[in-house]
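Deviation from plan, reported transparently: iron/sulfur cluster complex.
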Amino acid sequence: MPGIYIHIPFCRQACHYCNFHFSVSQKRRPEFVQALKKEIALQKDFLKADNQEKVILDTIYFGGGTPSLLEISELDDIFSELFTYYQLASDAEVTLESNPDDLGPEKLAALSNTPVNRLSIGIQSFHASDLKYMNRSHTAEQAEKVLPDAEKAGFKNITADLIYGTPGMSDAQWKENIMKLISHDIPHISAYSLTVEKKTALEVFIRKGKAPPVDEEQSARQFEILCEITSQHGYEHYEISNFGKPGFFSRHNLSYWSGVPYLGLGPSAHSYLDGLRRWNIANTCNYIDNLQNGQLPPFEQENLDKDQQYNEYVMTALRTMWGVNKELVKKRFGDDYFEKLMHASRKFLKNGKMQETSSHLIISAEGKFLADGISAEFFV
Ligand code: SF4
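Because the crystal trials were delayed, the predicted structure below was used instead.
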């Protein structure tokens, strides 16, 4: 069943490492919500099959930006427009990305009365020095408080984001971060290595010597610590950056990786349908202005050719614990691609970075930290 992604392009302040599309000015937020509702109406047929009255959605994902900046009344408004055209599956997953400084007890209680049933909380670290290095808008105290508050409000399906490899964060502090989530029995953890993206404040600060650089060895070591502790506590490492207790894997991510159609709404949001990828302009003012004039915002699109579809499949599959399905490659792409797949895998099977079963090629524990580099060598 298809899903919807909604990009909310506002943040309280700019994290130094971030290269997503967002604005720290919220002046046009009310106009944005109205524009988003217009886009929902204009795109009502994107996912529709012939003769289908209402599309049934398996997942809705509010990402950003910081969707938790939305007022509850704004969220209600968006849901009510969505449900004019869509129906939610009875067990649908509705995720809202959020930051600890937006989630006071009152907001959490109100959120629990909306269709949102999965909270994704951007904790990143429980240590003030890391939060300062990253320029996060929340404090260490707010990070500590949000988990018990969310549980009290009745949220059971919670995922928390952490960042490792932050200069100055010791291995002991990193273990503390992971253990804090585990002690609250948080069923899903997404953990990312701090990366220095181009055109971010972090890149400039490091280049000018104003911030210490990121150390690859520290990141690799802290990734190993993460894998070890989460596995000891019953989490499945089902994707390079994602660890979940059984029954709590992100359905939004799983559908995205398996080529299920989705509609992306909001500036910079991507959509996917039968090999067609389409993305909205990453400009919030332009997005709002166009929709105020009754037009869809400018977008670009491409039809993925066979090579691109193969590369995409191999890249996403190799990041998961299930790996690449050999039979699927043969059937969907043909013998040529299967040959290329097996040829590219030889080196990694030999050096222990990959394993082969009768049906799959899987990145081994040893190769996981290098997964992106490994999958790049499979590209045609
Ligand atoms: S809150 Fe998230 S989207 Fe906003 S600046 Fe920070 S990392 Fe980027």
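Residues 11, 14-15, 18, 20, 22, 64-66, 99, 122 surround iron/sulfur cluster (CB under 6 Å). We consider this an acceptable substitute for the interim report.
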